[in-house]
């Protein structure tokens, strides 16, 4: 017996509201694009925020939505960076946008190849394995210095104009437009993805993998898929870094980078896509400010922030900002849920 | 008599303990088959073996004549053998609408759809709402599962399983832990299951068993002890002896 | 070849002393403590200050390093770590990474960023001639000391009441509490002891491993490898894992110098794929 149309209507409306663009979201992106004209003297730091935000977004996909703790996400970032830099230096792919896509594919291949490592084992095992992969890559990059420039980094990289037309200037104007556009496009794709049936299945896998497989979901296959996508995003972020700075060095693979990334995502909150972007903004400005105070010892403050965040408790912090986010409508409810439930519901 | 689900000499050993001892079980198509036995008899182990959560030490499992012994859990679900859990295994942060919606969309092969928004297929939403109504969940479709009363959660547990359109449904103590005033909803839902679905029910509550089942198997120490119609099993002295000292729950 | 083996054994036993505390903490409290290396660093630097600057004899500096690190560990455990036990693993990771960053930066600030060495007494320098092969005296000392420590650890675990309380608490914390074992005390003392061992390892190892403020970061992965490969349910697991790693790393760097630590990481990844719960863990792991 078919259900009354009104019930179907209510259900459909609720589902659509769940995915609808909220006013605050639209405002966020308008502001980001407006900064192209309104904040011209800050374009350099805004460019950094853009690719860092993309990098954090990619981590959110696996950490916030699939529940995989990774200490080595820099592996994909680094592969992307070096691929883009090498493609430019040796003129294999001269046009940067194309090179960026190739770099994304390279990172995706690595992601796919290593995805099976994170399917099994405890949190600690996953941590170890992801860290291990990043360290192996760093070692390789170090050993093959003739290719990668070793500890000094890859010198002599010149980036050709984007699409043959737009020169990447040293004030970051073109760079910001470039990075912001790439970020926006990839963000929209990710947003569709998490609001799709596939995205819903990821959340189910994170929340209760046993139940997920009991309704016919192949947990492993889904994790491999999102891990590969996240790797591609991270690789593109790395490529953007390499292209906007015309440089790549070993530290793209470093543990510091993976650890900083975790902090960026945690500051903003994982599991609602905007956490990485907001975290990137806060982190970069914090870094800017603290570096002026204590240029050498700024990791100390980063460490302190991490310790304080954990001790105070992520739930308590998000409950302070709840009134603000309640203004955002439906999306805020999902945000609060996800911040509360970063770990699977089994509870560690 | 066409057989929907069959096990052939199923054995499961856990370093010294034989949890399932040479179980050869046949469940007829469309049957309402109950599996009973004292605590620790191996009922849940058997369910885990049937659904692929555990690998048997030896023996085979056939679904509609097809050997499924080597398949993983999700593959078996795709072939139509679905279970519910004795302790609710639900997605605490999803709503019933999303939970059942997920099951339906996976069954329809649309689980890998990454571009369409959830809820953009009207026929799918319609089916989901219909299932939710059938299980009396239409007043809580947009509430987080974690805050639902236990009875509603239990209903959701069964609704999700039904949403997968199983050929064989394994119900693991559907009324377990449900408060008195919510039990009748569960029982009504179980009684109203479609007749073309073969049901294997694990239960402790004898009232439920005798009112629901058309065939009963008794499992003791991992082995099939007695099997027959409800009358036969009820009159069997050996069954009474096995349950001596056991508190049989009163409905 | 014999030199390599003896070097590898020394290295491995040092790793064992350093990592054993981490293994027990992980197995006992299910707590991922990435800051374990910081306690080792503390022990190392304390010894450097005592021996190099204050003229304390080397063999007196070692137990002081142990006690100091143990004290620091105890303090941190009571004040900070105890709040983080119940939190999800991600929070533990973030917390201990934060501690590592703070300790690295603080040490850099106080002690400077260059590598430091402990002034070993002259009778420990140089080599012994052993059947025509040279074995470093200091390395021999390490092998002997660490060997004794391992035996002592095994003894404590197996024969003392504290040891049996510890083993009970590792096996099943709830039941242990129910038996009247003061699990919180066991946690604190074990953590302190593990940190002390790390400090001792840091003091002993400064000469071989090199001591600078980045020590916790550099060696974090090694400790983690020992723990994941060796498992957390025994002493023997990490012991053999450490030896495997020590010999593997030394041999790898000698025979295949271009790949260096590559060998270690690859071993780790291979082992974790094959047996995610570690080579030596019991079947039932957390």
Fold and architecture overview:
The complex is a heterotrimer of chains A (348), B (251) and C (286). Chain A is mostly helical. Chain A has one domain. Chain A has helices at residues 5-19, 23-38, 43-63, 74-89, 96-115, 123-143, 145-148, 173-194, 197-207, 209-214, 219-245, 255-268, 274-293, 298-312, 314-320, 322-326, 330-340. Chain A is globular. Chain A starts with a helix and ends in an 8-residue tail after the last helix. Chain B is an alpha/beta fold. Chain B has a single domain (3-242), classed as Rossmann fold. Chain B is built from 9 helices and 10 strands. The longest helix of chain B is centred in the middle third of the chain and has 14 residues, at 150-163. The radius of gyration of chain B is 18 Å and the shape is globular. Helices cover 74% and strands 3% of the residues of chain C. Chain C contains 11 helices and 2 strands. At the A-C interface, helix 6, helix 12 and helix 14 of A face helix 3, helix 4, helix 9 and helix 11 of C.
Largest protein interface?
A-C, 47 and 48 residues
What integer value in Å does the Rg of chain B equal? 18 Å
Strand-and-helix sequence of chain C, N→C? Answer: HHHHEEHHHHHHH
Instruction: Compute the number of structural domains of chain B.
Output: 1
Name of the CATH class of chain B: Alpha Beta
> Uncertain regions of chain C: pLDDT < 50 for 5+ in a row?
282-286
Number of domains of chain C: 1
C-alpha end-to-end distance of chain C: 40 Å
Order of helices and strands of chain B: EEEHEEHEHHHEHEHEEHH
Shape of chain B: globular
Measured by DSSP, the beta-strand proportion of chain C falls in: under 5%
Question: What does the average pLDDT of chain B come to?
Answer: 88
The N- to C-terminal Cα distance of chain B equals 33 Å
Approximate helicity band of chain B? 25-40%
Topology:
The complex is a heterotrimer of chains A (348), B (251) and C (286).
Chain A: H1 5-19, H2 23-38, H3 43-63, H4 74-89, H5 96-115, H6 123-143, H7 145-148, H8 173-194, H9 197-207, H10 209-214, H11 219-245, H12 255-268, H13 274-293, H14 298-312, H15 314-320, H16 322-326, H17 330-340
Helix pairs in contact in A: 2-8, 3-8, 3-11, 3-12, 3-13, 4-5, 4-6, 4-11, 5-11, 9-11, 12-13
Chain B: E1 3-14, E2 17-28, E3 32-36, H1 43-51, E4 58-63, E5 66-67, H2 73-79, E6 81-83, H3 96-107, H4 122-134, H5 150-163, E7 168-172, H6 180-191, E8 198-202, H7 206-212, E9 215-220, E10 223-228, H8 230-235, H9 237-242
Parallel strand pairs in B: 3-8, 3-9, 6-7, 7-8
Antiparallel strand pairs in B: 1-2, 1-4, 4-5, 9-10
Helix pairs in contact in B: 3-4, 3-5, 4-5, 5-6
Chain C: H1 2-29, H2 36-53, H3 58-84, H4 89-111, E1 127-130, E2 133-136, H5 137-159, H6 161-171, H7 173-178, H8 183-209, H9 215-230, H10 236-255, H11 262-274
Antiparallel strand pairs in C: 1-2
């Amino acid at each position: 017996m078919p259900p009354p149309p009104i019930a179907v209507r209510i259900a459909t409306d609720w589902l659509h509201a769940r995915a609808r663009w909220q006013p605050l979201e639209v405002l966020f992106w308008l502001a980001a694009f407006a900064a192209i004209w309104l904040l011209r003297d800050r374009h350099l730091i805004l460019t950094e925020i853009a690719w860092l935000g993309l990098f954090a977004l990619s981590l959110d996909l696996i950490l916030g939505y699939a529940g995989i703790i990774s200490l080595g996400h820099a592996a994909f970032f680094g592969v992307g960076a070096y691929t883009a830099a090498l493609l430019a230096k040796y003129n294999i792919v001269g046009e940067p946008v194309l090179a960026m896509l190739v770099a994304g594919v390279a990172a995706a291949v690595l992601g796919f190849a290593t995805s099976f490592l994170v399917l099994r084992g405890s949190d600690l095992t996953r941590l170890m394995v992801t860290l291990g992969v990043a360290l192996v890559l760093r070692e390789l990059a170090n050993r093959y210095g003739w290719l990668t420039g070793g500890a000094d980094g890859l010198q002599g990289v010149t980036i050709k104009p984007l699409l043959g037309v737009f020169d990447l200037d040293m004030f970051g104007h073109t760079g910001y437009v470039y990075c912001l556009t790439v970020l926006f496009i990839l963000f929209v794709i990710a947003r569709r993805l998490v609001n799709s049936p596939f995205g819903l299945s990821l959340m189910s896998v994170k929340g209760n993998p046993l139940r997920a497989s009991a309704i016919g979901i192949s947990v492993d296959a889904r994790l491999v898929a999102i891990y590969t996508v996240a790797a591609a995003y991270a690789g593109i972020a790395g490529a953007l870094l390499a292209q906007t700075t015309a440089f790549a060095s070993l530290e793209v693979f470093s543990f510091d980078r993976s650890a900083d990334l975790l902090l960026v995502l945690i500051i903003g909150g994982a599991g609602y896509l905007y956490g990485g972007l907001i975290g990137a903004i806060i982190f970069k400005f914090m870094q800017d400010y603290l570096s002026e105070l204590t240029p050498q010892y700024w990791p100390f403050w980063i460490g302190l922030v991490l310790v304080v965040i954990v001790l105070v408790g992520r739930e308590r912090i998000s409950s302070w900002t709840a009134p603000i986010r309640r203004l955002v409508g439906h999306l805020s409810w999902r945000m609060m849920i996800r911040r509360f439930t970063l770990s699977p519901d089994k509870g560690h | 008599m066409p057989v929907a689900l069959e096990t052939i000499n199923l054995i499961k050993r856990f370093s010294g303990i034989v949890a399932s001892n040479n179980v050869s079980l046949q469940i007829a198509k469309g049957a309402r088959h109950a599996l009973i036995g004292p605590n620790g008899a191996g009922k849940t182990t058997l369910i885990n073996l049937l659904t692929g959560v555990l690998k048997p030490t030896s023996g085979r499992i056939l679904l509609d004549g097809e050997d499924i012994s080597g398949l993983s859990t999700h593959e078996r679900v795709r072939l139509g053998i679905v279970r519910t859990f004795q302790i609710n295994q639900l997605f605490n942060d999803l709503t019933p609408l999303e939970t059942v919606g997920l099951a339906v969309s996976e069954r329809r092969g649309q689980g890998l759809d990454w571009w369409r928004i959830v809820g953009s297929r009207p026929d799918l939403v319609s089916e989901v709402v219909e299932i939710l109504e059938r299980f009396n969940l239409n007043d809580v479709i947009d509430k987080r599962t974690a805050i639902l009363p236990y009875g509603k959660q239990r209903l959701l547990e069964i609704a999700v399983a039904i949403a997968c359109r199983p050929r064989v449904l394994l119900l693991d103590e559907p009324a377990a832990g449900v408060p008195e005033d919510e039990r009748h909803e569960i029982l009504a839902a179980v009684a109203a299951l479609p007749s073309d679905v073969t049901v294997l029910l694990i239960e402790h509550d004898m009232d439920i068993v005798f009112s629901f089942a058309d065939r009963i198997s008794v499992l003791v120490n991992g082995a099939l002890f007695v099997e027959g119609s409800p009358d036969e099993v009820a009159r069997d002295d050996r069954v009474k002896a096995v349950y001596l000292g056991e508190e049989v729950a009163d409905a | 070849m014999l030199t390599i083996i003896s070097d590898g054994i020394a290295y491995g036993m040092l790793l064992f002393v350093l990592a054993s505390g981490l293994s027990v903490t992980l197995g006992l409290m299910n707590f991922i403590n990435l800051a374990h290396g910081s306690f080792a660093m503390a022990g190392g630097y304390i010894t450097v200050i005592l021996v190099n600057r204050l003229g304390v004899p080397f063999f007196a500096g070692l137990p002081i390093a142990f006690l100091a690190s143990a004290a620091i560990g105890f303090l941190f455990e009571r004040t900070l770590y105890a709040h983080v036990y119940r939190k999800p693993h991600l929070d533990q990771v973030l917390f201990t990474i934060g501690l590592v960053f703070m300790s690295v930066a603080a040490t850099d600030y106080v002690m400077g960023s260059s590598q430091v060495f402990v002034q070993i007494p002259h009778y420990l320098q140089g080599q012994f001639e052993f059947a025509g092969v040279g074995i470093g005296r200091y390395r021999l000392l390490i092998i002997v000391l660490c060997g004794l420590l391992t035996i002592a650890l095994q003894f404590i675990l197996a024969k003392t009441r504290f040891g049996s309380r510890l083993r009970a608490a590792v096996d099943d914390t709830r039941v242990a509490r129910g038996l009247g074992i003061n699990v919180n005390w066991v946690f604190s003392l074990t953590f302190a002891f593990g940190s002390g061992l790390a400090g001792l390892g840091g003091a002993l190892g400064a000469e071989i491993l090199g001591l600078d403020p980045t020590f916790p970061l550099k060696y974090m992965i090694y400790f983690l490898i020992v723990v994941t490969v060796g498992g957390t349910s025994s002493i023997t697991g990490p012991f053999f894992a450490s030896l495997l790693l020590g010999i593997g790393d030394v041999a790898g760097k000698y025979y295949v110098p271009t790949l260096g630590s590559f060998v270690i990481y690859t071993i780790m990844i291979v082992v974790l794929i094959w047996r995610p719960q570690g080579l030596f863990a019991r079947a039932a792991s957390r």
